[in-house]
Amino acid sequence: MPVLSRLKSKRLHDWLGSYGLHRARRALSPPAPRPRHLIFALCDHFEPLWGKPPASVGDARVSAWRARYPELAKGARDSRGYPPRHTFFFPGEEYAPSFVAPLAELAEAGYGEVELHLHHDGDTPEALRARIDAYTRALGDHGHLSRAGDESYLYAFIHGNWSLANARADGRYCGVDEELPLLFETGCYADFTFPAAPSECQPGRVNEIYWPVGELSRRRAYEAGERACVGVRRRDRLLMITGPLALVRRAGRLRPRIESSAIDQSDPPSAARVRTWAAQHIHVEGRPEWVFVKVHTHGAPEENAACLLGDGGRALHAALADYNDGARWRLHYVTAREMYNIAVAAMDGAFGDPSDFRDYAIPPPPVAA
């Protein structure tokens, strides 16, 4: 396939320029102080009804995680003794008590937290606001989601089908241009949707933690942003936390592959992938020794669960252990909420051990407190 056609089919033109600037900036940056801290979050688009099976299949998928995740996590600990902390971004439209209650047991045992995932299509601002209110209350009834001082819900968010802020050209899988301010008004403090390459929803900005800027009620308002930096913290909008996105060479092949930090049975974790994620050096400007790695998965389907709860999960945590030698690196397993807290603590000038700031701005949900 000609180069231009290949670029178009993979939509590399959407973000390749930004990626080139990122690589140049990374190459010209001085070495970060040691030890560096790898702040690792695994964000799961956790959909028990993926593929539209009967509810009994959804129950079995949740039960597999409830039974097997503690066993997987038992052998892994970070620099402060925390086990792997999984964030289940649960799709509100799939809510059922039998799906959500077992996740509360995992959260109470210290293995992670639940946040909001949402698929919607042809929506209106009014309907979306009502939908979010219903879903957050449903999750909150099980002790999930953090609370503000007035007991309203605070949540992290991942958009279904990647189509945040009505991102698709055809308008599918959203419908609400002004989604970013609406999310913020309903309690969302951070979005964890991206990267989404090769989807058309992928923003031009890559490998950054940033604040969206400009007219936030416009379609794809996440495209314009201001890099998060020490000394500047915005309190009037949600924060965009993106995972690693890169082009990497494959052994024995000339063409590079897109590394979009998605892990599943078709692209399982490996030491090489962990090195690529860390090498993107996503950080708050001015705190380069705190390196943020947010990866994602769709962990509920059986084949992916078998990978993540079996050999793939063990390989992932074995590779992450190489970033926990205490001299060059210290590892921190975090939830999405904790990653946000550490990021805003950095903006406020915090330094030292990032695990000291897991609950810095957003408190833990009741079930995990």
- Taken together, the total number of domains comes to 1
**Through-space gap between termini:** 54 Å
| Series of secondary-structure elements, N-terminal to C-terminal | HHEHEHEHEEHEEEEEEHEHHEH
Strand content: 15-25%
Description:
The protein has 369 residues and is α/β, with parallel strands linked by helices. The protein has one domain (3-368): Alpha-Beta Barrel (7-stranded beta/alpha barrel), CATH 3.20.110. The chain has helices spanning 3-10, 16-28, 55-73, 97-108, 125-140, 179-185, 271-279, 302-308, 311-321, 336-347, and strands at 36-45, 86-91, 112-118, 146-147, 153-159, 188-191, 209-212, 225-227, 239-241, 246-249, 256-259, 290-297, 329-333. Strands 1, 2, 3, 4, 5, 6, 7, 8, 9, 12 and 13 form an 11-stranded mixed β-sheet that branches. The longest helix is centred in the first third of the chain and has 19 residues, at 55-73. Residues 1-5 have low confidence and may be disordered.
In summary, what is this structure?
Helices cover 31% and strands 18% of the residues.
Descriptive terms for the model:
10 helices; 7-stranded beta/alpha barrel; disordered N terminus; alpha/beta; eleven-stranded mixed β-sheet; two-stranded antiparallel sheet; 369 residues; 13 strands
